[in-house]
Amino acid sequence: DAGVIQSPRHEVTEMGQEVTLRCKPISGHNSLFWYRQTMMRGLELLIYFNNNVPIDDSGMPEDRFSAKMPNASFSTLKIQPSEPRDSAVYFCASSLRDRRQPQHFGDGTRLSIL
Amino acid sequence: AQKITQTQPGMFVQEKEAVTLDCTYDTSDPSYGLFWYKQPSSGEMIFLIYQGSYDQQNATEGRYSLNFQKARKSANLVISASQLGDSAMYFCAIFRGSQGNLIFGKGTKLSVKP
Which strand ranges, in their side-by-side order, compose the sheet holding A5-7? Predict the structure, then answer.
């Protein structure tokens, strides 16, 4: 079975540019999560969706960040304009909305803003 | 609010020995779930084991077992017969049932020595 698929795996861009990260969740999963991981702050939840609807975006750092889930099989996380402090690994995860079900993570996007 | 505490930033263990990674949690929810994830140096997040708050028995998955002490609010991961491939970061997480997402601890870096 295909796992959570993220693209790109690596992204290097200059500050001020728009960055778009993409995620395809596991088919049948109804919850999708975006995380950011840095050495300083660890693993932080940015936003998550249930049935394509954003439930909690309190972790989104600021208005430069936005996330969408137009359908059950695709989500994007955008940063515009990007800044060097946005450099991190961004993970997408999906699960069934059940407390007993684990979240399955994608391989992450390693983002470097120069 | 839910909270996860992992007090061991780093641990060393000799190959073939057992090791316990500590995790304590704080929650006001009567029903919750606890998860452990492994993150090797390659970066992916791998689900290891789950414990439900009402489960009568401690969870086990192969060489992984969970020492769940509900009254003490601890959910320690025990890895038996450590292997070199167990060297990784290990994260404990609690399921936030009222919202549907996970809260992660800061992680413990395990190094297995030959």
Answer: A5-7, A19-24, A74-79, A65-71
**What confidence tens digit (pLDDT) does each residue in A79-99 have?**
999 999 999 999 999 998 777
- First CA to last CA distance, chain B: 41
User: Is pLDDT of B97 > 90?
Assistant: no
Nearest to B43 among A93, A99, A107 (CB): A107
Residue whose tokens read 């049935």: A51
pLDDT digits (tens, 9 = 90+) for A42-77: 899 999 999 999 988 988 988 999 999 999 999 999
Structure tokens belonging to residue B17: 């020995």
Contact call for residues A102 and B50 (beta carbons, < 8 A): yes
Please give the Cα distance from A106 to A9 (Å, whole number). Answer: 10
Contacts of B101 in chain A (CB under 8 A): 33, 45, 48, 55-56
- CB B35 within 8 Å of CB B49: yes
From chain B residues 57-86, the ones with a CB under 8 A of any chain A CB are none
CA distance B102 to chain A (A): 8
Q: Does the pLDDT value for residue B102 go beyond 90? A: no
- Say whether residue A99 is in contact with chain B using an 8 A CB cutoff: yes
Contact yes or no for B30/B52 (Cβ under 8 A): no
When CB atoms are compared, the residue of A55, A93, A99 closest to B95 is A99
Put simply, whether B114 touches A (Cβ < 8 Å) is no
Segment B32-56 mean pLDDT: 94
